[in-house]
Design brief:
By secondary structure, the protein is an alpha/beta fold. It folds into two domains: about 210 residues, Spore Coat Polysaccharide Biosynthesis Protein SpsA, Chain A (Alpha-Beta Complex), CATH 3.90.550.10; about 110 residues, no CATH class. Helix content is about 45%, strand content about 15%. The protein is built from twelve helices and nine strands. The protein is globular, with a radius of gyration of 21 Å.
Length: about 325
């Protein structure tokens, strides 16, 4: 096996963490790597750190561009990636030395297009190789089953599927696919697409990726209108599966979209009470979507009992929004 693996690392104002990320990639036991650092208009020393590493290591390439956001940086990396496989790593995160080798080996062994590993959530940034956990256990599923997991069939496992950075993916999945520029929750805009396009997906029961929970993370910032991007991301699933003539998948995406609409309406009332026009628009979309979804009687990913519970929740959201907030949103700050 001598396939090139292209590792794409978007970089923006991460001088405190960048070297840790790059060093973890340079320590990989699999060495046929193209390491792409995309400096997305950093205003600190991140750009200089990238250039210093590129001068020392020939496998590192640096792209400097004006700030366009995470999606623009990842897209720039995809444009110059030459590997048969793609890995995304966020620049404040880091990986086990065995990450690429184990993820690639298991893809080749089982003729899979995507491998997914478990994630360590790190608050301190002080993990070492001993904290990562290798495992020979795995689960082999189809891309279609991965789509169902993405939409939440296995509950808490859903984030494993819609995140791009705990995966190794065949580059052909990204031939005509790019992240939406200017959006947050950009992952959900594209994840249903690459999962659906995969023949087989391997879930590795090993903790090989460390996600650093930075105190300035976007997902820890206050609730803002920008968070409503997640509504567009879930509706993108409706559009995609309608386009590829997968009505059951489109129904599932529509179900998630409706629940998020009710959530968004309630949270806007709590955190953005002055945005009356936005709340009015959300309410109108929620009612329209409710009227569509109440005519659908079954889903391929849940039991009839679960369908009934969804319908009860939606009924409360449609007719009793104040009660919906108390029951489902009182302790939430995210859609």
């Amino acid at each position: 096996m001598n396939d090139i693996v292209s590792i794409i690392i978007p970089v923006y104002n991460v001088e405190k963490y960048l070297e840790r990320c790059i060093e973890s990639v340079l320590r990989q036991t699999y060495t046929n790597l193209q390491i792409i650092l995309v400096n997305d208009g950093s205003q600190d020393s991140s750009g200089q750190i990238c250039d210093a590493y590129a001068a020392k290591y020939p496998q590192i390439e640096v792209i400097h561009q004006a700030n366009g956001g995470l999606s623009a940086a990842r897209n720039a990396g995809l444009e110059c990636a030459t590997g048969e496989w793609i890995v995304f790593i966020d620049s404040d995160d880091y990986i086990s030395a065995h990450y690429v080798k184990q993820m690639l080996d298991i893809c080749i062994l089982h003729d899979a297009d995507i491998s997914i590993c478990k994630v360590i959530f790190d608050n301190d940034g002080n993990l070492n190789e001993n904290n990562f956990k290798k495992s020979d256990k795995f689960e082999l599923i189809t891309g279609r089953e991965a789509v169902l997991r993405h939409f939440g069939k296995v509950g808490k496992d859903a984030p494993l599927f819609y995140l791009p950075w705990n995966k190794l993916m065949r580059a052909s999945l990204w031939k005509d696919l790019r992240f939406p520029v200017g959006k947050i929750n950009e992952d959900i805009f594209v994840s249903h697409n690459f999962l659906y396009s995969a023949r087989n997906v391997v879930i590795v029961d090993a903790y090989l990726y460390a996600y650093f929970q930075s105190p300035i993370s976007i997902m820890r910032s206050p609730f803002t209108l920008a968070r409503l991007d997640i509504l567009d991301s879930w509706y993108e699933g409706v559009r995609f599966f309608t386009q590829v003539a997968e009505p059951e998948f489109a129904n599932i995406a529509h179900r998630i979209y409706l629940s998020r609409l009710f959530d968004a309406y309630g949270l806007c009332g709590k955190y953005l009470p002055d945005e009356r026009d936005i709340r009015k628009s959300l309410r109108r979309k929620a009612v329209e979507t409710y009227n569509t979804m109440k005519r659908i009687n079954s889903y391929i990913d849940v039991t009839q009992k679960q369908v009934f519970l969804y319908r009860v929740k939606w009924f409360v959201g449609r007719y009793f929004p104040a009660i919906y907030y108390v029951l489902f949103l009182r302790n939430k700050t995210l859609i």
